[in-house]
Fold:
Amino acid sequence: MEETRVVVQRMGEAVTNYLAALTRDQRHKAVIAFADETERTNWHYTPIFRAGLPLTEMTRPQQRLAMKVVATGLSHAGYNTASTIMGLETTLDAKEGWSRDDRDPVRYYLSIFGEPHSENPWGWRFEGHHISLNYTIAKGEIIAPTPTFFGANPAEAALGNVATLRPLSGVEDLARDLLHNLNEGQRATAILAHAAPADIVMRNRPYVVEPAFDIDDPAELHRWMHRHGVSHDEVEALHYTSTPRGVAATSMNGGQREILEALIQEYIQRMPDELAQIEWNALQSRGIDSVHFAWAGGIERHQPHYYRLQGVRFLVEYDNTQNDANHIHSVWRDPIGDFGADLLAHHYRHEH
Structure:
């Protein structure tokens, strides 16, 4: 599509300019073979060391070129959100009494997989604490913008007696609005468990698998169930499976459907406008009716909670349980096509 080719051209030019500004040693760290699938799909949202070149090892002009690459993969609103999340590292550092060295607003890594090419696959990743952007490109087309992860800690920070900073307020408030707009029967279907899992169920698995749950260790799971009084049936309901759970869009009225669509848009519209429109059209063509909304945990603000949106080739997970329910994790994934898995397989079958 012409729209994606325009975005790919912007990305390619930004990456080329960025790589040209690096020293040989920096470039050696920044560029990773596209064929290294293990590393290419090794995504995280915790403040760990990563493969790639961190902003900490760049000059200020190089950092600006790196952030220009990031900006090509986000809308204006998405970029504002990402930069705010990065800035929150200093807020978190102060909140924790400056006790950890990994609370660093420039400890973010830009990794280039392969190099921009009109035919051969390539891609890039920007990642650090609470951000993971992953773009996979082939034949001049973006074949995957997922996984896309945004988190925030703190999720809410005071700016005075009235105002607060909430970079992910949209994905929290709209979901709660939807839950409160459901009737009693719908809400009973939507709520899978009275306690929320401690994190997004799929965590940072390279690909979406089933059945999957936040806790893999049986002993740890038993302790969690005992601590929160969660039944085996509730745990089973919280597991991710390819069969969606919760209340379906088909059973929602017009007002509920409007809130659902606005919530979905909050995730998709983090992308550049051209790509967001394409993804929205694709979701509509597959059928928004297939999307289910599921919830776990408290239903009021500042209570630990979790929700899931699941439809055909569409999965969103959101969790806000840690730090007294002031620590959000949210991710958008394609259960079939994360990292371009489906289309890359087709490409290699036909091109090689």
